[in-house]
Sequence to fold (47 residues):
Amino acid sequence: MQITLGRLREDNLFDYKFVGLSHNTLRGAAGGAVLTAELIKKLGYLD
Fold:
């Protein structure tokens, strides 16, 4: 499973904005969304 984050930029409302893409051949789109959420939680972007 691969996740790519791009176009990371500062934002006045949400602190940061970004575009996230995941390869979903094996895991599926929902699994990619969960994996992305786990990553941003681990990086401290979610409370």
